[in-house]
Design brief:
Strand 7 and strand 8 form a beta hairpin. About 60% of the residues lie in helices and about 10% in strands. By secondary structure, it is α/β, with parallel strands linked by helices.
């Protein structure tokens, strides 16, 4: 029997110890992976152990069980919740349907009753996961819901091979309804070492997004598209792009948790018409390339990582994508390899073809430089591109060396600009935190609204450059300020709590003791941290 992880949350240690001793976890197919005495501490424990089940009291200091359930629905949407509640709060607890509670259990907890609930939970989790493995069911679902003609229609729509006047005519022919004032495309990549991803894996992912994506006013369509799962969204009413990104990230986490796959989503720019989706999907493909720098297992929005989307140029699509990928996120060896491959094509072409090939090549570099806000003079010198004709080169080798030198120069400038931009954003975030840490409602969302970044991208950026999460950094600033005020002023503890962003003095004392090992009063009395 597979064992699933449980986290137990209750502010009374006696109750936690009683439950942990009376339940035969292993026999029921569970392991007690962690315990916490309030909702705030439980979130930290859950972040570490990623539980399958959370058993929590409803009444606790600092954060109650219902608020904990709401937070877990976003952070760990696959986790099942069991609420422990007193008789007086039972009806109140039952009204909390929005947090997907699996079961409610009255205190005092009966070990036999809890064991029965855990047994049903184990069966539910097993049933859910067994259903995902039902290959034949997924195959039949695929055959019934994704006819070949509809798949071809959406593929051609993303490829940009349908004219604007053809789109609605073809959609009507295949009994498809295309509604929405705004459209956006995303690509889901499955991390796998070597070989292609089995088609049935994509069917599993497709069923998850079709079933669990929930955003009012948004219609979602998914299809297998060039080794990815393409996600097309249309909006019947105004919706913030970052609201859409947050919901996309929630479903990605849920899907990744249930399938145990490392999933990355690249998201393109919003467009006004369905026939413009080819531009959005190119942005999504470019966004996916940044998983090399940011790490996989996240949602990456093209507007977060590039000032604007790269524009189409008259250059072979494969050559264009290979060159852009190497210059933007590759290594020096990869740049050299791409230049070598392009030079091999030049050697086998006619003079006229070579001339056009070279001009398109340079045009591609200029487009990338412009998107990266790098002046052409920084790449080619004060006079720009002087060598406009093949006759200016004495040999293919000289042309290859010249091209490699300038491709590598652009690669170095982009890397430097990216690093400078990243540190600038992190510095802005630190300055904002220093100016606002005393505000109790300071959060990642308020900071990201100020910086015009998505929370997912900012969290990755901030932790990568500071070594700690946003919450940990804010706590550090608040605690350092509290220590200074305790040492240098006669302010009352409750006033210091207010000045460091804590409305509840008891919670301030709780965090201070966790951070330094002593209460604020004992610290002021002479017990240094």
């Amino acid at each position: 029997m597979e064992q699933y992880r449980v986290v137990l949350v209750d502010d009374e240690e006696e109750i936690r110890m009683g439950i942990s001793r009376k339940i035969d976890w292993e026999k029921l197919g569970f392991s007690l992976a962690g315990q916490a005495q309030n909702g705030v501490e439980a979130l930290e424990v859950c972040e570490q152990v990623k539980p399958d089940v959370v058993i929590t009291d409803i009444k606790m200091p600092f954060m109650d069980g219902l608020e904990l359930g709401r937070r877990l629905r976003q952070a760990l949407p696959a986790a099942k919740l069991v609420i422990l509640t007193g008789f007086d709060d039972f009806e109140f607890a039952r009204q909390a349907v929005s947090i997907n509670v699996f079961e409610y259990l009255l205190k005092p907890v009966d070990a036999q009753e809890l064991s029965l609930i855990l047994d049903r939970l184990h069966q539910e989790i097993e049933r859910s996961r067994a259903e995902l493995k039902n290959v034949e069911r997924l195959r039949r679902q695929y055959e019934e819901t994704l006819p070949v003609l509809r798949g071809m229609f959406y593929t051609r729509l993303l490829d940009g091979s349908l004219r604007a006047d053809q789109v609605y005519d073809r959609a009507g022919r295949y009994e498809l309804t295309l509604t929405g004032d705004r459209w956006i495309a995303a690509l889901l990549h499955v991390g796998k070492m070597g070989g292609e991803v089995d088609e049935l894996v994509f069917l599993t992912l497709q069923s998850f997004f079709d079933q669990y994506f929930e955003l009012e006013g948004c219609t979602l369509r998914t299809l297998i598209y060039k080794d990815h799962l393409a996600i097309i969204a249309s909006f019947a009413q105004p919706v913030s792009t970052y609201t859409y990104l947050n919901e996309l990230e929630r479903v990605r986490r849920l899907t990744s948790s249930e399938t145990r796959l490392r999933l990355t989503i690249g998201v393109g720019e919003m467009v006004d018409h369905p026939w413009e989706l080819s531009a959005s999907v190119k942005g999504a493909r470019n966004a996916l390339d940044y998983r090399v720098l940011l790490g996989s297992g996240r949602t990456i929005y093209i507007q977060d990582v590039e000032p604007r989307q790269s524009r189409e140029i008259s250059f072979d699509e494969n050559d264009e994508q290979d060159l852009i990928r190497a210059v933007k996120v590759g290594t020096e060896d990869q740049v050299r390899q791409v230049v070598g491959t392009l030079m091999e094509k030049v050697r086998s072409a006619s003079i006229g073809q070579c001339q056009m090939f070279f001009l398109d090549w340079m045009n591609c570099l200029l487009k990338v430089a412009r998107d990266g806000q790098i002046p052409a003079e920084e790449i080619f010198g004060k006079e720009g591109i002087r060598m406009e004709k093949l006759a200016d080169f004495s040999s293919p080798g000289q042309m290859g060396s010249w091209c490699f030198e300038h491709c590598l120069r652009l690669w170095e400038l982009l890397d430097r600009r990216r690093s400078d931009s990243t540190w600038n954003l992190v510095d802005q975030a630190k300055e904002y935190i220093l100016n606002h840490f005393s505000e109790s409602d300071l959060s990642v969302d308020t900071l990201c609204a100020h910086l015009h970044l998505s929370p997912t991208y900012f969290s990755t950026l901030f932790k990568k450059n500071t070594g700690m999460s946003f919450t940990s950094y804010v706590t550090k600033i608040r605690m350092e300020t509290a220590v200074r005020l305790l040492r240098d002023t006669d302010e009352k503890n409750y006033r210091i709590a207010e000045k460091t962003g804590y409305l509840d003095p008891n919670y301030f004392s709780y965090v201070f003791k966790r951070y330094y090992g002593v209460t604020p009063s004992k610290f002021r009395a002479g017990t240094s941290p």
